[in-house]
UniProtKB/TrEMBL annotation, chains A, B:
GO terms for biological process: amino acid metabolic process; carboxylic acid metabolic process. Gene3D superfamilies: 3.90.1150.170, Aspartate Aminotransferase, domain 1, Type I PLP-dependent aspartate aminotransferase-like (Major domain). One of its GO terms (cellular component) is cytoplasm. InterPro entries: Aromatic_deC, PyrdxlP-dep_de-COase, PyrdxlP-dep_Trfase, PyrdxlP-dep_Trfase_major, PyrdxlP-dep_Trfase_small. This is Aromatic-L-amino-acid decarboxylase. Its cofactor is pyridoxal 5'-phosphate. One of its GO terms (molecular function) is pyridoxal phosphate binding. Pfam families: Pyridoxal_deC. Belongs to the group II decarboxylase family. The modification N6-(pyridoxal phosphate)lysine is found at residue 281. Keywords: Decarboxylase, Lyase, Pyridoxal phosphate.
Amino acid sequence: MRALVAAAMERIGAHIEALPAMPVCDVAGGAALARTLREGLPAEGCPFEHVLGVLFDRAVPCTFNTASPGYLAYVPGGGLFLAAVADLIADATNRYVGVWQAAPGLVQLETNAVRWLAEIVGLPAGSGGFLTTGGSLATFSAVVTARSEKLGERFDDGVIYTSDQAHHSVQRAARLAGFRRDQVREIGVDERFRVDVAAMAAAIAADRARGRRPCLVVGHAGTTNTGAVDDLAALADLAAREGLWLHVDAAYGGFFCLTARGRAALAGIECADSVTLDPHKGMFLPYGTGCLLARDPAALRRAHGSPADYLPPMQDDPDFVDYCELSPELSRDFRGLRVWLPLKLLGARVFARALDEKLDLAEVCAAALRELPGVELVAPPQLSLLAFRHVPAGATEGPELDAHNRRWLAAINRRGRVFLTGTMVRGGFVLRICVVSFRTHRSRIDAALADIRAGLAEVGG
Amino acid sequence: MRALVAAAMERIGAHIEALPAMPVCDVAGGAALARTLREGLPAEGCPFEHVLGVLFDRAVPCTFNTASPGYLAYVPGGGLFLAAVADLIADATNRYVGVWQAAPGLVQLETNAVRWLAEIVGLPAGSGGFLTTGGSLATFSAVVTARSEKLGERFDDGVIYTSDQAHHSVQRAARLAGFRRDQVREIGVDERFRVDVAAMAAAIAADRARGRRPCLVVGHAGTTNTGAVDDLAALADLAAREGLWLHVDAAYGGFFCLTARGRAALAGIECADSVTLDPHKGMFLPYGTGCLLARDPAALRRAHGSPADYLPPMQDDPDFVDYCELSPELSRDFRGLRVWLPLKLLGARVFARALDEKLDLAEVCAAALRELPGVELVAPPQLSLLAFRHVPAGATEGPELDAHNRRWLAAINRRGRVFLTGTMVRGGFVLRICVVSFRTHRSRIDAALADIRAGLAEVGG
């Protein structure tokens, strides 16, 4: 057992030390690699060294290097090593935390972690929630809870409201929960990509007039496209006035509430009925840790709870949480340890400082991009994400302009020090920078800006 | 980093060595412990030794000892240490496997693992699926897929059929997916607790006559109550005849297909449209690894897929799987490594032998219980789970008989060497033994039988 861990740690240590110098994206030959790795169920085993070789020499290098300090694509994961230690302990001890009675102390540590997250976004005492594997399942449970609270078992006439910049997990959550496509309204946005609250109010009124039942507003605290933060206070007012459930998808943005700038940008989030957070984004944890917070955990229980003769008795004391009653899972990992251990060991201030640094770095990027002739800051950072493109003199909207910007993106990424991705905004292709990795510091941002300038020169900017 | 792991491994090693002698269930003082562990968000950190102390000296000991060889309760988890090593590597390298393009080699390893599981239950080439955190979410996605394939966006008139011994996750999955309670029929069972297929056929006919749309049959390969395996071949015939989706919940039983006896008991599972498996049961992994297999992975994609501008392009080659398209998750952990690594390193035969041993041990229990006067084997093992009770001479059904058996259960568990649980069967309380832990061998089963006899003597059997 110890020998296995020692051998794995040799490889892990070397890998993490090499990260800064490794290419940020290297998937050339991926299809061929995948084909050579294919094999049937092995009857007999093989040595651990062989397994480590497959992983560290072949499969891990051929990836988007999501763990690199230069990974500024999508919304970066992190990979705080403390979480790996937490999982090592959780897996090896393998206790069951879905039912309070089975592990009262461990469940309390998970509950501490959930309450800390609620405290971070400013939800009141008495709020709760549960940890998921990521934002998508958190948002799914929010939709199910809103459906259960506002519509009941028949919801053919229910309507959900969000922005046309919504993460696709909102549409998907609605579909999984049994809503039809035409029961989700994607409302337009303002020039900063924030949902048009007046238009949403009008849509709600129009639906009511047609006999529909509006049930849920989904706001965003940091969209994936451009990092836009909706006017959450206005959405909270609207939802309260209309008696709707307010869910805020703060998967990317929520942890910035640890900073003064973030709290200002996300003002109103504390009025939400439920909030999606991704500790694997703003808390720098490895992929696989999301969270759904709820002002009234009893609503989660009404939507998800399910009795069974073969289970131990559930708790009525609200301090003692049976997570299998609040969430769609029964057996599952002790993922609370992954959240609790880093916060307990490092303290919240360390995270606040790191997130403040990310906000600063995004501002550095924005300031530098504003200096570049012809570069349009399509979405200045509201948090740590920004979108931009180059518009050569005389260029007009269309496929040629998009192709030009795609070439620019490729020229930047080809240099191997940073990895950016693009998206479509108002019908045009834009480049994005998202600074969230705990490994990204000023020196790498300077490298990014140098490569952005060099790439632009290369494509004739 | 290495120091953290070394310190954690000290504790883990000592814990695992002590497991056989530790009490199998010790949650006395759990409420008090939980209250003392409660605390607000810490601004500053604390030493790692303190964290290890909280975990190993306080929280972990006060639990149902799910990792103990004497844990024969519910359906035991396992906690194969290799999976902990896999998670350590997956967390530390933190690559993203939700999209094929982001990690072609790692995704292939996960796909190998999924295909191995499909091979184990006998699904044909071309079948696929995805890993979940457990059986509940796997079954949920099966229900959503059946709904999408058989009913479409409007499913008010759809009906689901399962047995009255169904795991509660079936009802819950239907509810989450938007079905009303009255859209799920729980059909009665035969004397071996297997669903009455003729009664199910009659219910389907009756529903069709009333204009309802039958869509899904959920069979069980090892119920949680008594370990019953439905006649899966008959269910497959029925589903094929009626054009319904057949899902088999083999969360507990599926891995026994690695053994000759298991394959015989589960004959017909290879005809299912989808199958729930829990590698954290029959593959002895730590809690948190389930699987949904599907004969036609394209159906999973039709039900779950969701495009987005900000994502990389998805694959059309069926060999290259984008897991975010088949499943409800987007960002999530690389849980494939937890399944792939132990199978690759140990080979399937090791698991087959271990599962054969569990079948033998359940037979040993059954034979010994048959010898005890007044003991009724309510459910002889169809796999490795059995249910029984003591009926004193002249006793009749009712609360007194139940109380007598509850006292017997308590007298067994009080001895601390094994932990059994009970359930309600045909209105009466029964004791259960479920042998699934890789740590449970003959010596512990002999101890269990000794404690069962001693407990019975104590309560006057």
